[in-house]
Amino acid sequence: MSATNPASASDTPALAKIRTDVVGSLLRPDAVKAARVAFDEGKIDESALHIIEDEAVRAAVRLQEAAGLDVVTDGELRRLNFQDSFGASVEGYDASRSTLKVYERRVEGAAPGRRWDIAQMHDVGTAVSHRRPAKARLKLAHNIPLEEYRFVGAAAQKPAKVSLIGPDRIAQRFEYESSTAVYRDLDAFVADVVAIERQIVTSLVAAGCRYVHIDAPGFTAYVDEPTMAQMRGRGEDPVANFLRSLKAEGAVIAGYPGVTFGIHLCRGNQRSMWHREGTYDAIAERLFNELPHHRFLLEYDTPRAGSFAPLRFVPKGRVVVLGLVSTKVPELESLDALKRRIDEAGKYLPLDQLAISPQCGFASDVVGNLLSEDDQKRKLERVVEVARAVWG
After folding, report:
1. Which member of 5, 99, 221, 262 has the lowest number of beta carbons within 10 Å of its beta carbon?
2. In order of start, what are the domains of the chain with their CATH numbers?
3. Model-level pTM greater than 0.85?
């Protein structure tokens, strides 16, 4: 399936053109972390945990709305890991429930600002955040994103968006070689993933959600030599994987008029570390022209991302959200430096097709990056300050 432009200029959804954005996750407050540990240890039940999470989500909404953002999220505060939008929502994996302490152990001894060994992700735990096989065909059992949206949508004055992990990452984190009794190949598995994700998207749209954000960090795997070597070592063809994923990502969002879809690419985000490197150049032309999403949220906070030159391939009508504000370090980017970066991007794409956001989430899992809640607040405010200075 070759994707087409999602909408003409006359019927592009209003949220497709907003100038500020957020990737999804926020730092987990201490109260949420403490409640999660108590729940993991059986000291409180799920209803008690939810009461604490509910208040934290309300506070997260207030934070984002006070900063002036055009769209808000629930901070993914109920998730142990951003990939739980799928892994914890389905049955069929040979996987187990994870805990906060599991995620803390995964980053023990790690050095901020360094490349993190992705092999650490393959132990037993929640599917997708760990590479796990299937013991039965997957089915939607617990629609976590819908539950999240119903709460944040009611709590927010601004439009609320929901983030889902995309089929590319789900396929990369599927131990297909141990699943042949269930799925004959990756194509069969991905077909089920697409069907389940469409169930989730359909339910969100029916509930009133008008902005669905797809997290697709794995697309940078196709420009990262060590990760492609891992694929080849499993007998996979990285090019075939890339093309399969382009089709699957497009299929998930096809046929929802009036709904804005964004897709986020990054190079990993774990305790202020990263997983991959490589510029967008090798995949940009196909990525931007075959994915039908309205908004491309691209990590651009370090030289690992390369130049803005690949933006020349972005079609008219699409918006690139420049992830210029780092969520990995506490230092606040200057207003003038960010404006200069936007000017540089403007050499390759008209200013009307640009927006700004943090480069990634502040806490892709419950552990979070190495900065404070005050740092987080100042960075969200800086995103809005830059947008007002540039676009008015």
Report:
1. 5
2. 9-391 (3.20.20.210)
3. yes
